[in-house]
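We emphasize that the prediction below concerns an isolated chain of 91 residues; any contacts that depend on oligomerization or on bound cofactors are therefore not represented. The input was used exactly as deposited, without trimming of termini.
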Amino acid sequence: MVEENLLVSPFGWGAIILVATSLVLSYRVLFGPTLADRIVGINTVTTKTVVILAIFGFIAEEYFFLDLAIVLLMVNAVGGLILAKYMEGAK
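Result of the prediction step, given as a token string:
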């Protein structure tokens, strides 16, 4: 079986685009005007990271990446709820 290069696969290009948009979004996380902007930015970057892990797990046929993506997604959801509760109490 012939090994496929990452850049030949459309999934590889999708992962590269997700990494590029995550780098652009990191500006919002670092220099966001409010705490809410930073939280939304962190949640978005984490969600993109989950998708990148799932894509690489699919390409490499290493299924522990998918397990890792699921765990990271659960931590992201719980973390977002905790931060929202914190922001509600901070007002």
